[in-house]
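Friendly challenge for the regulars: who can give me the structure tokens for this chain first? No prize, just bragging rights.
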Amino acid sequence: MRRTVLADELVQSYLEKFTTSAGQWHIGLIIGQMTNQKDYVLHMAETPDPVEDEVSDVEQEVPAPKKSTVKPSRLEEMNNQWLATHAKQVTRMLPGGLDVIGIFVIAPLQMIDSVQNKIIQMLFAIQKLLLKCQLVAVNDSTINDRIILQMCPVAKKYICRIVDVSDIKSSPKLADFKFQNILDNWIKLEASIAIDLPISVTKTMQSSSLNKKILAGIESFCTSVWNGMGTIGGQLKKPDECINPFSASDSRKSKSRNREMTVLHTYTVDLLVPHDDLPLSVTVSECSSSLWIRGVMSTYGYVYPKATVKEGVQAIKCDVIRSLISRCELLCEDINVIEEDAVTKTVFDTPVRVFGTLPNSAIQFGDYMFQDEELEETISRFKELLDITITEENLKLQCERTPVEDDIEKPKRGAVVDPDLQVTSYTSKTKLGRYYLGAVAGAIVAAAASISFYFFDEF
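First reply, four minutes later:
Bragging rights claimed.
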């Protein structure tokens, strides 16, 4: 039985703009949600032209692709890793529940026919890089299928195939591809997540990059988030229960609605993270430095109308983990490229999250802005990476804020240093307890919007 792929009507309008480019080729990413029953395509984003000498190795971090005139003349010359890097950058901007679920190719039939193996290789390159970037397995689903959509701009003929990316030897299978207004009655999930996470960097990781130190430190936290439970709307429900039990009847009523009346049912999610038991034995590790990550993240996700509680909670968990990792990576990239005095700095502000609304839709994507960035840079990234034209009115900028001086915690007056432990006592403004850090100069931020890092070098 063929899989069914439903694409929103906005996607059809997006693809039709390429029908005027006869003889040319285009390639890009399919963004949506895959389920056991059907697959949903909410958006497509053309991949920017490669920049000479900036196509990345998988081990390197690459700046956002910039417009260039070095587009290969033939599709078979397209660099697989450039497309995979685009997928990684787009994934940072996606809310929980949405993923890069395939690629689209628009080219003359003769050109497409000659590069079938190349297209499959690109799909596997994307999957390999995205899996490499996952700190924990954020999906226990058995859905390993990904989509390849091909279109001839002259004949306007679509061919949709499904590839099992868990099997390098798998053969593409035909799928049914249909355009519909699929956004009615989708479910939006929201959560505000407080982070208060101390990290000790062991001597063995002293020579590692800052990014690796941070990722190693947050791995256990991310695992706890993924293994936790969640309430929806303040209620603890059965995992297989529908989030919105009235979705079926709502869908029938909404068929006559226009795009401006799209309905999203919004629910608040609270995550319940398991508290680790005391270890049976204590392992002593020699540490070279410590980090403290503190702040509050705005997280959100989207799921299809008949989604279960388990799928909804997983969407939020995925967004929490993805957002935290993205902030870590972007901060480290910024330090490596811009912060010349990083070695003397003890407090780092990660970029705050801003949200942009997909035109003629209620779906929002995200971006991350540093304090010194201009709004035009965010608008440019939406255009370049997601191929979305937005204005300042389409941006939601107040969900998070950069910490101010009052958020920085100073050492408690009269703090006592224990000569045996060689640590200084600090009291948290959040009144969550006392924390003991290395006896070095530093500051701690009380739970404030956005995430900050506090680096204490050498105990």
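Confidence is low (pLDDT under 50) at residues 56-62, 251-257, 410-449. The chain is about 25% helix and 30% strand. Your move, everyone else.
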